[in-house]
Design a protein that fits this description.
The protein is α/β, with parallel strands linked by helices. The protein is built from 14 helices and 8 strands. β7, α11 and β8 form a beta-alpha-beta unit. It is globular. The chain binds thiamine diphosphate and magnesium ion. Thiamine diphosphate binds next to β3 and β5.
């Protein structure tokens, strides 16, 4: 039942290698039980290994699609960088959780769906919303609390939503979307709509009862859902090692006899490959899957996080394997895209982000008459 999406060596290294060499840990990292600095070398080696397997996958994929995948990753990165900038200027209020470093997960998974398939996620939702089709203008205006936002400025950063694009939030309660997503998959099966649901959540959500209750029901009732655990190693300032008795999240699915895979979330092609397999399982056999996709968030938990629970070295270690750099390197080596193409993609993304900012700036605040519309209690 269990399958592995990455080479065994890599999985073993990731799961066991980091805890081994306590001597090389900084005092701060040791205190928090966070990663081993010797992993920097490991990360470099893994980068090379990934590059080779990525090139193979690239050769089998449509060139236009590959370009679009890179564009979406770059757009997500530039969009989030701008969010941080304008947040500091006071243009965005409230909570704001950025996705920088995790782009390959949203792009590799959501772009493998059909337009009618459904997505539900946590508060770290801007990039996923855009990849699912909500315009950057509507996402930025939502962040600004303006009427042009995808929820008319009433949801803000944590509550992107669009029924038109089958994007069902944006949820602030950790793990809440796992129950709702399971219900969406149940509805799809009940109605025979043929839709698949992608349900994203962080590794900290896995410690909650809703995760286990939902997986049990999904397997029992054979629901067309793919649970994607984005393991970015931290739940706010708490490392996974301090909060979870096992480091192996994918294997938890075996308690429910559910198919599962561990995937390298820095490799967009590996994500796409694993998600495609899970989609087929959901669509053809009506079987759910749990994917644990390992990633790392470069920024703080939210914009107000001073980040003093991890070291700069640890962040740098993961940046060695940046998903965008990796993908660009592979695309270039496979002779699919050139430096000139990359420049064009960057320019295009920059222009789209600038337009989104302009749109958000110019969009009016919601009128007072909007106060009680679309509000359910
Ligand atoms: C039920 C619940 N408990 C606690 C919180 C506070 N909280 C917000 S985010 C978060 C950490 C979640 O981490 P993870 O699930 O790993 O997702 P990530 O932020 O890393 O994407 C916590 C504890 C909450 N929002 N909801
Ligand atoms: Mg996390």
């Amino acid at each position: 039942m269990a399958r592995s999406g990455t080479s065994r060596r890599t999985e073993a290294e990731v799961r066991n290698g980091s805890a081994g060499n306590a001597k090389k840990k900084s005092p701060k990292a040791r205190e928090n039980g966070s990663a081993d600095l010797s992993e920097v070398e490991l990360a470099k080696a893994e980068f090379q290994e990934r590059r080779n397997s990525q090139i193979e996958a690239i050769k089998k994929t449509d060139k236009k699609l590959l370009r679009e995948m890179l564009y979406q990753m770059v757009l997500g990165r530039r969009f989030e960088e701008k969010c941080a900038e304008v947040y500091r200027m006071g243009k965005i209020g409230g909570f704001c959780h950025l996705y920088i470093g995790q782009e390959a997960i949203a792009v590799g998974s959501i772009m493998a769906l059909e337009p009618d398939d459904m997505v539900i996620t946590s508060y770290r939702d801007h990039v996923q919303a855009m990849v699912k089709g909500i315009s950057p203008e509507a996402v930025m205006a939502e962040l600004y609390g303006k009427i042009g936002g995808c929820v008319k400025g009433k949801g803000g950063s944590m509550h992107m939503f669009s029924a038109e694009h089958q994007f069902y939030g944006g949820h602030g309660i950790v793990g809440g979307q796992i129950g709702v997503g399971t219900g969406m998959a149940y509805a799809a099966k009940y109605k025979g709509s043929g839709q698949v649901t992608l349900c994203f959540f962080g590794e900290a959500a896995v410690n909650q009862g809703i995760f286990h209750e939902s997986l049990n029901m999904a397997q029992l009732w054979k629901l067309p859902i793919i649970y994607i655990c984005e393991n970015n190693k931290y739940g706010m300032g708490t490392s996974q090692q301090r909060a979870m008795s096992t480091r192996n999240i994918a294997k938890k699915a075996e308690s429910y006899e559910m198919a599962n895979e561990f995937v390298d979330g820095m490799d967009v092609m590996a994500v796409r490959d694993a998600v495609q397999r899970a989609i087929e399982r959901a669509r053809k056999d009506g079987e759910p899957t749990l994917l644990e996709i390992r990633a790392y968030r470069y920024m703080g938990h939210s914009m107000s996080d001073p980040g003093n629970y991890r070291t700069r070295e640890e962040i740098a270690k993961y940046q060695e394997r940046d998903p965008i750099v990796l993908f660009k390197t592979s695309l270039k080596e496979a002779k699919v895209l050139t430096d000139k193409d990359f420049e064009k993609i960057e320019a295009e993304a920059a222009e789209v982000v600038e337009n989104a900012l302009k749109f958000a700036d110019e969009s009016p605040l919601p009128d007072e008459s909007e106060l009680l519309t679309d509000v359910f209690a």
